[in-house]
Each structure stands twice: as C-alpha cells, then as structure tokens.
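Deliverable D2.4 — example input (structure tokens):
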C-alpha cells in the first residue's frame, strides 16, 4: 500500500504539468491563429483602400516643386457614359452617374508656356471621408479662374493634383503593408514552431566498416611462430 501511494504522489504532478502545458499550447495556438487571420484580413482591407492609391501615386512621379494652376472649365455631367472620369468622387468601387470634371492649365515655371491638364483630388480621383471631401474640394477648386499651387505628373503631364507628399505616400505603403505582413509572418512562424517539425532532419551516417586486410598472394611469404 505504501508503494502504491508513493507512485500516485509521483504521477499526479506529472499529469498536472502535462495538462498545464497542453492548455497553454492551446491558448497560444488560438492567439497566433487569430493574429494570422487578422493580418491577412488587414491586407485584404488595406491594400485596395490605401496601399494601391499610394503605390499609384509613387508610380505617377509627381514633380515635388509646385506649379501654378488655374481652373479653366468645369463640366457637371450626368449619366454613366458621360462619367468615365471625375475630378473627385467619394467611393472608388461604385459607379458614378453624376460627376464633376475640372479642366485646368498649369505652368511649372514663370518662363514656361501653359499646359492643359485635368485636376484630380488624388491620383485615383476618388477616396473615402474624412481624407477625401468632394464638397470642400469643389468649393476650393471648382470655379473658373481659381488659382492655386498644384503638382503635375511626370509620367502623364495631363494630370495634376492639389496636394502631394512623397514621404506621406511612402509612410502609407509602409504602414499598410509592412505591419500586417510582419504580424502574419511572426504568427505563422510561431504556429510552425509549435506544431510542425521546422528543423530539417539530420541524415544518419552509415556505420563505418572495418578496413579490409590485404589478401596474401601466392608469392607472399608467410611466417609462423613455432
């Protein structure tokens, strides 16, 4: 009886430790899986809303020196066929049946000639509040004769925007891509370390064979001890 009771006392702490370890592993797995799913969902949400416009703005290669812009014409259009583009539209995924198109002229320096262009609130011409407010945009730039600084695209000289900051676009791309990718990558590595054999297995070397003794020929002398 004494031996059995001592064995029970030894086994119980082991079981408790194993149960605590399994429970802790389960909690960590749930947390890492939530981080992995959250990082993937954040990428799906942030890339089309923020990262894609910022990357398009960087690809447009706007001149960092502001030019002088003057609004020449404003067109208020109705109909899906007439609204193939808009200077400002709230919501980039819905079709526009009513749009405002602003035509401007600009010159990069006082000595240069005026160039014709179209004015966009940003490179996509659309966005979501509070970053994009089309009512304020139209009030400030939508009347004929309005003068303001603007930035023209060196990739397409017929496109100008009223605001531009390369550092801001780079920071937007970094926030919307680097942080979710880092969180998802760390969560995936943690799940792999918990449940997978991530380290490559070492190949077992075959056992070394003992060296063979040279065979004696017929002409070799054999000496025997008497």
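Example output (designed residues):
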């Amino acid at each position: 009886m004494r031996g059995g009771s001592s064995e029970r006392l030894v086994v119980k702490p082991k079981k408790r430790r194993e149960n605590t370890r399994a429970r802790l592993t389960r909690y960590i797995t749930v947390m890492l899986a939530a981080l992995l799913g959250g990082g993937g969902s954040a990428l799906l949400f942030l890339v089309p809303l923020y990262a894609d416009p910022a990357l398009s703005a960087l690809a447009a290669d706007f001149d960092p020196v502001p030019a002088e812009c003057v609004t020449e014409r404003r067109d208020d259009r109705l109909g899906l066929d007439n609204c193939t583009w808009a200077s400002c539209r709230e919501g980039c995924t819905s079709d526009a049946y009513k749009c405002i198109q602003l035509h401007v002229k600009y010159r990069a320096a006082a000595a240069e000639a005026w160039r014709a262009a179209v004015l966009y609130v940003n490179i996509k011409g659309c966005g979501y509040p509070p970053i994009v407010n089309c009512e304020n945009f139209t009030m400030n730039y939508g009347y004929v004769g309005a003068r303001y600084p603007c930035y023209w695209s060196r990739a397409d000289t017929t496109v100008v925007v009223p605001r531009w900051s390369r550092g801001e676009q780079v920071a937007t791309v970094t926030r919307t891509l680097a942080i979710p990718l880092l969180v998802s990558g760390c969560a995936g590595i943690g799940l792999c370390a918990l449940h997978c054999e991530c380290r490559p297995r070492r190949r077992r070397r075959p056992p070394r064979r003992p060296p063979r003794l040279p065979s004696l020929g017929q002409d070799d002398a054999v000496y025997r001890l008497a």
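The chain has a mean pLDDT of 81.
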